[in-house]
Design a protein that fits this description.
The chain has two helices and five strands. The chain is of the alpha+beta class.
């Protein structure tokens, strides 16, 4: 999903997306996220839910019934100067 790749707070390489389809053009999206420590988790997840719904419904004939986001891990990053970056 494009909206996951554009967020610096999300480690896209460790993110897993599963989509479950029904026979009547409906789907449920489940996303397991790895996020950077210090990111505003609640507001970011709320924003991502809306963007995922918009992306799927705009690019496909499916209606999104639910979006489940699971923050599976928080990570710290170290900058080039050796300082930890959240």
């Amino acid at each position: 999903m494009m909206c996951l790749q554009e967020k610096q707070e999300i480690v896209s390489e460790e993110t897993m997306v599963n989509v479950f389809f029904t026979n009547d053009r409906r789907c449920t999206v489940s996303v397991a996220l790895t996020m950077v420590y210090g990111a505003p988790i609640i507001s970011l997840c709320t924003e991502l839910q809306q963007k995922i719904i918009h992306e799927v419904e705009t690019m496909t004939p499916f209606i999104v019934e639910q979006v489940h986001l699971f923050v599976q891990r928080l990570v710290m990053f170290t900058t080039e100067d050796g300082k930890q970056n959240a």
